[in-house]
């Protein structure tokens, strides 16, 4: 069994050797991720795991991939997307320009879902979707816009439940068990690495989505991140979190009003 | 009372179940005396992943507060917490909940093993782990970890379980302290709550 002290050592290595700071991640989950990686890669001892990590920059990739959870899907929580379509997007329609930030976008399913929603509202042409993640590998996948065909049945059901009225399969072309989403959807996307632990605000947005990322942070890092978002949201802009995440424990809460049952807040001051 | 010898100061009871365990809870909850001095955490495999009305259903059977967990909710004694669908439920050392949407474990999210292990890390010998009805092997490994940290293990009497496999599997593969039916379980939990 891996002990707390071992975790501290690995986190220290990651920071000192590579500058990645995971110290304020939620410990219980992080411990599981590290144990899992240690077991999967069959290290005879924890010391050897650490040695490999410190001496082999190639292995770092694997560790970052192993520590972060990148599970995602298109139109995840369809009712959330329904609320976006009916309550959020229409209030942005009059703007000359719409800026959206997907923080922790993983392999891009969320960004492509948003592009579809905007396209159907006839707003994609004047939107910009910034999609960031700390993990460069998931961003590479997101850039390609290629997803496994087997997922499409589920995604299509999600799409319909979210209020989508078109034929979902019209948005992609299938080939060899993969699908590639329409180039026109990706035209307004900008992918870039951005670490919520250490990087700063880089623009002002009308809507920030950060879903299922904060659950991996402890309260202190959540507070830092939420303040970063607060700095990056204009008045009357929106912040959308994952279905089990909340602003309730944050100091920025007072400036925001929750819109409906979905986890969407509007900045009111 | 014999139960008191099993555990001195119980802080938390973690209950895991799969097929057939909602029925058990609907009988167990009304039999628990209120107020509750400890915390109860319930992890269930659920068919319908978007169904959030389970907390309401359970809540209708007891005056004890029943709450579906949101990320970083503090663990408050006297409360029954329910793991939300589609997330693993973890407990941090400073007694707040964390959620985790990583890979399924034993084909399940939430997985009983995951919460059992995390609760064992935090509560050690002040923890009771209870395994209810179910048709798979999730839970047994976690119960062993609870025992390794000094906790107490209870399994539902397999002949009273709608799906006997899960408690049976645990009885065969983990050092279960007591095998109880639902009425006995309620008496046991009430005794823990009182001795605190
Ligand atoms: C579970 S995915 C969420 C994907 C998508 N937002 C969704 O809800 O489906 C979490 C993502 O957060 C990213 N992440 C974790 N820590 C981060 C950090 N410090 N900065 C930026 N992204 C981070 C991970 O790499 C991962 O891709």
Short description:
The complex is a heterodimer of chains A (269) and B (196). With 269 residues, chain A is α/β, with parallel strands linked by helices.
Count of separate DSSP helical elements of chain B: 7
The molecules bound to the chains, other than polymers, are: S-adenosylmethionine
Overall mean pLDDT of chain B stands at 93
Largest sheet of chain B: 7 strands, parallel
Keywords (chain A): Methyltransferase, Transferase
GO biological process, one term (chain A): methylation
GO molecular function, one term (chain A): S-adenosylmethionine-dependent methyltransferase activity
Pfam families (chain A): CheR (PF01739), CheR_N (PF03705)
Structure description:
The complex is a heterodimer of chains A (269) and B (196). Chain A is α/β, with parallel strands linked by helices. Chain A folds into two domains: 64 residues, no CATH class; 190 residues, 3-Layer(aba) Sandwich (Rossmann fold), CATH 3.40.50.150. Chain A contains ten helices and ten strands. A seven-stranded mixed sheet of chain A has the order 6-2-1-7-8-10-9. In chain A, strands 3-5-4 form a three-stranded antiparallel sheet. In chain A, a hairpin with a 5-residue loop joins strand 9 and strand 10. In chain A, helix 1 runs parallel beside helix 3. Chain A is globular, with a radius of gyration of 19 Å. The N and C termini of chain A lie far apart (49 Å). Chain B has 196 residues and is an alpha/beta fold. Chain B has one domain: Methylesterase CheB, C-terminal domain (Rossmann fold). Chain B has seven helices and nine strands, in the order αβαβαββββαβαβαβα. In chain B, the strands form two sheets. Chain B has a seven-stranded parallel sheet, with helices on both faces. In chain B, helix 5 packs parallel to helix 6. Chain B is globular, with a radius of gyration of 15 Å. The interface between A and B is medium-sized, with 22 and 21 residues. Chain A: Pfam families: CheR, CheR_N. Chain A: It comes from Larkinella punicea.
């Amino acid at each position: 069994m891996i002990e707390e002290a071992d975790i501290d050592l690995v986190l220290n290595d990651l920071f000192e050797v590579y500058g990645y700071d995971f110290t304020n991640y939620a410990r219980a989950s992080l411990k599981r991720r590290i144990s899992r990686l240690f077991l999967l890669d069959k290290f005879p001892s924890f010391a050897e795991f650490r040695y490999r990590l410190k001496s082999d920059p190639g292995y770092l990739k694997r560790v970052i991939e192993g520590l972060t959870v990148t599970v995602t899907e298109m139109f995840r929580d369809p009712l959330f997307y329904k609320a976006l379509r009916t309550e959020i997007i229409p209030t942005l329609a009059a703007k000359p320009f719409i800026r959206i930030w997907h923080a922790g976008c993983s392999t891009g399913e969320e960004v492509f879902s948003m592009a579809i929603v905007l396209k159907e509202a006839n707003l994609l042409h004047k939107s910009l979707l910034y999609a960031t993640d700390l993990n460069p590998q998931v961003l590479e996948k997101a850039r390609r816009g290629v997803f496994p065909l087997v997922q499409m049945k589920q995604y299509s059901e999600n799409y319909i439940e979210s209020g989508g009225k078109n034929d979902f399969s019209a948005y992609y072309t299938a080939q060899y068990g993969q699908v590639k989403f329409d180039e026109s959807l990706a035209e307004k996307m900008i992918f870039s690495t951005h670490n919520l632990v250490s990087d700063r605000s880089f623009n002002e947005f009308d809507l920030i989505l950060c879903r299922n990322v904060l659950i991996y942070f402890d309260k202190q890092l959540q507070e830092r991140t939420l303040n970063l978002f607060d700095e990056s949201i204009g008045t009357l802009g929106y912040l959308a979190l994952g279905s089990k995440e909340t602003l309730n424990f944050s100091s920025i809460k007072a400036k925001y009003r929750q819109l409906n049952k979905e986890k969407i807040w509007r900045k009111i001051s | 009372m014999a139960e008191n010898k099993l555990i001195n100061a119980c802080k938390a009871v973690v209950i895991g179940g799969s097929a057939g365990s909602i029925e058990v809870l609907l009988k167990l909850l009304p039999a628990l005396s209120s107020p509750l001095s400890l915390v109860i955490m319930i992890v269930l495999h659920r068919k319908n992943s978007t169904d959030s009305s389970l907390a309401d259903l359970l809540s209708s059977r007891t005056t004890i507060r029943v709450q579906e967990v949101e990320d970083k909710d503090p663990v408050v004694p006297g409360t029954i917490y329910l793991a939300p669908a589609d997330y693993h439920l973890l407990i941090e050392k400073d007694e707040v909940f964390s959620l985790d949407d990583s890979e399924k474990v034993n084909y399940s999210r939430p997985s009983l093993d995951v919460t059992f292990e995390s609760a064992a890390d935090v509560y050690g010998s002040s923890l009771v782990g209870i395994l209810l009805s179910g048709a798979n092997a999730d839970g047994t490994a976690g119960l062993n970890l609870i025992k390794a940290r000094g906790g107490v293990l209870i399994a539902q009497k397999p002949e009273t379980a709608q799906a006997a496999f899960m408690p049976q599997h645990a009885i065969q593969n983990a050092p279960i302290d007591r095998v109880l039916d639902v009425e006995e379980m309620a008496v046991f939990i009430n005794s823990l709550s009182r001795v605190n």
